[in-house]
Design a protein that fits this description.
Largest sheet: 3 strands, antiparallel
Structural class: mainly alpha
Number of strands: 7
Bound molecules: zinc ion
Order of helices and strands: HHHHEHHEHHEEEHEEH
Shape: flat
Distance between the termini: 36 Å
Number of helices: 10
Radius of gyration: 23 Å
Amino acid sequence: VIEMHNRYNEIEYAKAIESNGFLSRFKKHELRVLAKYYKSQGVKNAELKELICEFCERHIPNYNEVRYASFINGIINFASKKTNKLIVIKDIPIAGTEGRAIDKLDIGYEYKRFLFAWLVKVKLNRAIYKISHDAELKSIYFSHEVARQKEIFKMSNLDRKEYNMNEIIKHLYDKGIIDIANNGKIKLLFMENMTEGKKISLRIPTTDIDYAGYYWDQFKKKYKVGYCQECGIIIKKKNISKKYCQKCGKKIKNLQTNQSKKAKRQKEKNMG
Ligand SMILES: [Zn+2]
C-alpha cells in the first residue's frame, strides 16, 4: 500500500514516485515533480531526459519513444523553468501575535477557527510563492472562487451540518473583518495590521494542513488534541482512549472485523 504523499514536500513525493512508480492518475504532474527533483540534484537536461524516458519506459504500458517525444520535451521544459522550483515546506509557523490578533476579534469561536484556517492558507500560499519567485508576497487579497473558500472551510474542520460557509463569510463581512474588493476578490482586513512576532506559538506540519482547525483548539487550549497512532495526523481527543483518526479508526475496525469473521469461519470449519 502506498502512503498518502504530502503535496507540500515534493522531495518526499518525488522519492516515492521514483521508487514506486506513479502514485496517482496524474502522470504528467508526477513526472514534473520527479523532473524538478532531478533538476534540484544538479542533473543536466540531456541526462534528465534520459532519466525521465527510462522511468516512462518502466511505468507507462505501451510506451513508445516517438509517440511520447513531445510529451517528454514538455516535462523537461517545465522543469527547466526557473520559477518551477521543487516545493518543500515542512510546516507553517504561527506567531503568538497572529493567534492573539484573531482571538481579540469580537466574534464567536467558530468564526475565529475559520479565520485561523484562512491565515494558515494564506501563509502557505506565501511560502509557496517565496520558493517559486524568491520574493515575498504581501497581498492580503484572496480568491473570489468558491472552491478556494471551500478549502478554507474544510481546513477549519467545522461541522458541515452545523455550520454554513456562506453564513460565516457574510458574518465576517458584516463585522468588517473582511471586505470585497472591486475585482471581486476578498480583502482579508484582519490580516492588515497583523505582525509576525518572533515568538512562534505553534507549527502546523504541512501533512496536517487540512486539520488547521484543531491547531486553533490547541492554541486556545479549548480541547485536548493528540496525534493518530497510525498515520500521525492531529486528532481531537474526546477521551484519553482515542488513539486513531477517523480514517485509520475505520480501517483498523474493518481489519479487526474481517479477522474475527475469518477466525469464526475457521472455527466453524474445524468444528464441522
Ligand atoms: Zn490516522
